[in-house]
Design goal:
heterodimer, A: 119 residues, B: 111 residues, three-stranded antiparallel beta sheet, 9 strands, globular
């Protein structure tokens, strides 16, 4: 079935970087844009940006522009989100989500990856 | 502070109907019919319940419905069931830098 499977939980120190992966199965990665959304503990959802897996083009929320890099490897049907210069307030669950153009919505979500930033 | 405003909580008894509002501006909710709603149970990923204001994806119960008036979108759940207890988030396309914006979320309690 169509699903997104993300990499496991990470614990990082302030100032470090983290790279989260999101493997697509049941459909062709290049058929849909991939977005990244995060959720801090007890908080709401926050949109981070998207990548066009076909071209590699990206668009990031201004808040993350200087620290986030979204990439993909189509040979392994996987998208990646790299966040650098981590701070304690980056502690959150990070989700990848498939954008369905026919629905104008995120129709498939990964299971989430918990990233903890602590000294 | 989220760009879209939702009530922090709503509640209802089994069998009743509830409505969750989502208020934005003409740059998002009011300007486009690209409002979606997501259900999130604790510890789980969000699930799409409504797209393009009022459409249900295949497999979503017809007890869930959506509408919009001006800058406010609404999600109505009829015939409340225990399994509907969850957080609900609205989302909209926006002309601001973020391109996609979420509401702060509403906790639905089934009494």
């Amino acid at each position: 079935q169509v699903q997104l499977v993300q990499s496991g939980a990470e614990v990082k120190k302030p100032g470090a970087s983290v790279k989260v992966s999101c493997k697509a199965s049941g459909y062709t990665l290049t058929g849909y844009y991939m977005h990244w959304v995060r959720q801090a503990p007890g908080q709401g959802l926050e949109w981070m940006g998207w990548i066009n897996p076909t071209s590699g083009d990206t668009n990031y929320a201004q808040k993350f522009q200087a620290r986030v890099t979204m990439t993909r490897d189509t040979s392994i049907s996987t998208a990646f989100m790299d966040l650098s210069r981590l701070r304690s307030d980056d502690t959150a669950v990070y989700y990848c989500a498939r954008w369905n153009w026919e629905m104008d919505a995120f129709d498939i979500w990964g299971q989430g990856t918990m990233v903890t930033v602590s000294s | 502070q989220s760009a879209l405003t939702q009530p922090a909580s709503v509640s209802g008894s089994p069998g009743q109907s509830i409505t969750i509002s989502c208020t934005g501006t003409s740059r998002d909710v009011g300007g486009y019919n690209y409002v979606s709603w997501y259900q999130q149970h604790p510890g789980k990923a969000p699930k799409l319940m409504i797209y393009d204001v009022s459409n249900r994806p295949s497999g979503v119960s017809n007890r869930f419905s959506g509408s919009k008036s001006g800058n406010t979108a609404s999600l109505t759940i009829s015939g409340l069931q225990a399994e509907d207890e969850a957080y609900y988030y609205c989302s909209s396309y926006t002309t601001s830098n973020t391109l996609e914006v979420f509401g702060g979320g509403t906790k639905l309690t089934v009494l």
